[in-house]
Design brief:
alpha/beta; 9 helices; 24% strand; seven-stranded mixed sheet; binds zinc ion
Length: 258
């Protein structure tokens, strides 16, 4: 299984830089987890393939360019862009994004050949198919309804939790998996901003270290992501100081494979 964090920040001469402002992860070139930078970070070939987007929660950094992505593809779609999320998050996206004011209600539109966007609600705790993957969603501890994910292609298994504070059920579900190849997890704020991390439902490297003690799988790659861009260098140092084997900060634009 392959996963790539799309770049979302460009430097003064237009090159992608390592800071992450928006969240969008491409799995095997055809499924996206979250859609913050989907319309600006996906190449043309990937845009032609991605028709499934799993939305973990409705925060702007996770859905910012989803409407633009569908807008770009509108005339060319032969099948809808399927937005997989809990029923609650689907309703929030209809109410707050695809509401005819912020952007058109694409869920009601077709281009003459197909509906352009389709909400596909999933239940927490149940396994559901997304393209070639089996996915399980678990509620995590953020300030709005948010899920973490366990993804499997039948051979490899990845666990993923972007925005979350300290959480329990996610680790129970991950620990029950017979095999785990990699974990992607957030580390948003430096240790000195623990209070801000707590009230906004995020982790510091120290808090991540405590979470990782709940993980039963050993010898897996752990990629830290959702590093607040203004603190990236400090966060990388604090993550290294944890001395957790195979824990590194995920690099935008790089494809990781297991
Ligand atoms: Zn969030
Ligand atoms: Zn976020």
């Amino acid at each position: 299984m392959k996963i790539k964090l799309l770049p979302s920040t460009i430097d003064a001469v237009g090159h992608a830089s390592p800071e992450q402002r928006l969240s969008c992860f491409v799995v095997d070139g055809c499924v996206c987890i979250d859609a913050g930078s989907i319309a600006i970070g996906l190449g043309a070939e990937e845009s032609a393939r991605v028709r499934d987007v799993i939305v973990t929660h409705p925060h702007m950094d996770h859905v910012a360019t989803l409407p633009i992505f569908i807008d770009d593809l509108f005339s060319f779609l032969e099948e809808p862009v399927r937005v997989h999320a809990t029923a609650e998050v689907c309703e929030l996206l209809v109410r707050d994004v695809f509401n005819g004011t912020v952007y058109p209600p694409f869920q009601n539109f077709d281009n003459g050949r197909t509906r352009v966007m389709q909400f596909v609600p999933f239940e927490e705790g149940e396994q559901f198919p997304v393209a070639h993957l089996w996915v399980k969603a678990v509620a995590v501890s953020h300030i709005v309804p948010t899920v973490g994910l366990v993804l499997s292609d039948g051979e490899r298994t990845l666990a993923f939790s972007s925005d979350t504070a300290s959480t329990e059920e996610f680790w129970h579900v991950v620990n029950r998996e017979p095999r785990l190849d990699a974990l992607l997890i957030e580390a948003s704020f430096p240790n000195s901003l623990k209070k801000l991390a707590d009230v906004s439902g995020h982790l510091t490297p120290e808090a991540l270290g405590a979470e990782l003690r709940k993980l039963r799988h050993e010898d897996i790659d752990i990629l830290a992501m959702h590093l607040k861009p203004s603190f990236r260098r400090q966060l990388v140092e604090e993550l290294e100081a944890l001395k957790v084997p195979r824990l590194v900060a995920m690099e935008p634009g790089r494809e990781y494979e297991w």
